[in-house]
Fold:
Amino acid sequence: MAFDILRSDGLDGLTMRTLAAKLGVAVTAIYWHVGDKQALLDELVDRIIAEVGEVRVTGGSPADRLLSIGRSLRQNLLDQPNLVALVHRQGRTPVLFLPAQRVVAEELTNAGLHGADAARAVHAFLRLVIGSVILERTEQRSPDQRETVEELWARERLSLHSTLAEHLARPVDRDELFEFSLSALVRALVTQPAPPWPASSAQSYNAT
Amino acid sequence: MAFDILRSDGLDGLTMRTLAAKLGVAVTAIYWHVGDKQALLDELVDRIIAEVGEVRVTGGSPADRLLSIGRSLRQNLLDQPNLVALVHRQGRTPVLFLPAQRVVAEELTNAGLHGADAARAVHAFLRLVIGSVILERTEQRSPDQRETVEELWARERLSLHSTLAEHLARPVDRDELFEFSLSALVRALVTQPAPPWPASSAQSYNAT
DNA sequence: ACCTGAACACCGTTCAAGT
DNA sequence: ACCTGAACACCGTTCAAGT
Structure:
């Protein structure tokens, strides 16, 4: 019931009083059953995670299967913006990682990764997917000052390659961008020869 | 003044009444000067963007310079969690992209990218940085149910390579993970072998 | 055990009224 | 032009009181 209100009206529409009204009960009855609002939202978050976290896996190669996991998870989250918003507002975003972790880990193991490398890959993968969704969600909700961006890049055309400025002034194709970033990461993860990453980057990391 | 309250006490600590009290003035006086709270927060967001958006660039090669931009931007945002939280809560997260866009575009141009490819690279780069920060911010704020993750992976050890399960049960080194993801993306973006001292990219300001 | 009503402290906001 | 005080509608929450 609280779930329905949240899904349709968002977190702002879900108050103890509106919920009580929809239940045909006094406001204070909720406190006896659930506890305070924090407890109510915690229960909701747990249900959301279970509902929205399951992913479908398709494809033959490990790389393809990883991409399908990323797409599936992203679509689940984008389909329920109000639910994802609540999870994030409650500071529970990390739990969004949990349901898909196992299946991602499995695919990466199949791709030949093990130990710390595989764990890092799991985290990098899920972080990219969920971070993308959270940004996209706020972009959708705010058409924002698109004219400001265009203004900005109209003035920039002298100092930069003009076609780049033109493209930056245009709206983003989020699907394509997600596909691009995720593909780049997956390609970096499942290429067999271990890149000389830890040693070389430890230098540049301490450089600043 | 509202800025100081926000920085120290977060958005929850910034009410019209606490602000008025700190200003030594009646609550309603704020409405005459600023308008309603939405207008107040909008002004704050604009100031935050200006303050937190500037990045420092170091390094010789385009790839190194891109990495330094990413690190610098990330650190700025992580240093002011309450400010970033407000920007996000206001749905203005996209504006976090603006200040760094120009300098990232410049470096990618120097790296030999143009037009749509360069624009996509700009967006992918900034999205990874800002998405990472937003996730890290909520992770920091909630130690969460770390025991749940360990439980989960304790049970998983049979079906997966055991060292992977062990590593996944451990907390994440966020600095290392960010470095890993960003490096992978940058490597995917700047396809060229990138000699340590490219004479060509030194000439970045020649006329078009 | 389960629910109600009154009450409290806190919001953002409006508006007539003061200077 | 600038500020105040009272008032309103809305929160979450507590608690004694009902059945």
Observations:
- Chain A touches chain B through 67 residues (CB under 8 Å).
- Chain A has a mean pLDDT of 86.
- The longest helix of chain A spans residues 115-141.
- DSSP finds twelve helices and no strands in chain A.
